[in-house]
Design brief:
Length: about 160
């Protein structure tokens, strides 16, 4: 040790003191933002799930009504049953598309609309053409393709109930 170091007064150094831990509450602003985003995402997910459940319930109700009408139509092939199927299609179309576009359609225009909205040309030129006149006649045509008609109507309903607004 040198003479200068021995004659200097001893330094009174203290230990390093760490700052106190950050308090748990209130959280920093970033946590508030994160909590807000999570609440918004949960609300959005809940709304989407509720809408999807409501749409699926409505779709199931429409398909059940169609199944009942089809079973009834297979037993009693009458123009009244055919008119009921046509009415179900019209109600679904009115709920799915703008009223101005659907409400006044009859005959060939109605069949064209059905083809444009999921019929793939089978309403105007296929088994669905009976919808133009058969509901207004006393009896349905004897050469009607009942299975093809049933499949066509079910396909149209399923296509147009995938995403009911």
């Amino acid at each position: 040790m040198t003479a200068a170091a021995a004659s200097a007064p001893s330094l009174q150094l203290r230990d390093i003191h760490l700052p106190a831990a950050a308090p748990f509450w209130p959280p920093a602003p970033g946590w508030w933002v994160l909590a807000g985003v999570i609440v918004l995402l949960l609300a959005w997910a809940g709304a989407v799930a509720w809408r999807r459940r409501r749409l699926e319930r409505e779709r199931r109700r429409i398909l059940d009504a169609l199944a009942a009408l089809e079973a009834d139509f297979m037993d009693v092939r009458s123009s009244e049953r055919l008119a009921s199927i046509s009415l179900l299609l019209r109600r679904l179309a009115l709920s799915r598309f703008p009223r101005e576009r659907v409400a006044g359609l009859t005959g060939a225009a109605w069949l064209r609309f059905l083809d444009e909205s999921g019929g793939n040309g089978q309403f105007a030129a296929g088994p669905g053409r009976v919808l133009a006149a058969a509901p207004y006649q006393r009896s349905i045509p004897h050469d009607m393709d009942v299975e093809g008609f049933s499949a066509l109507v079910r396909g149209w309903v399923e296509t147009n109930t995938r995403s009911i607004p």
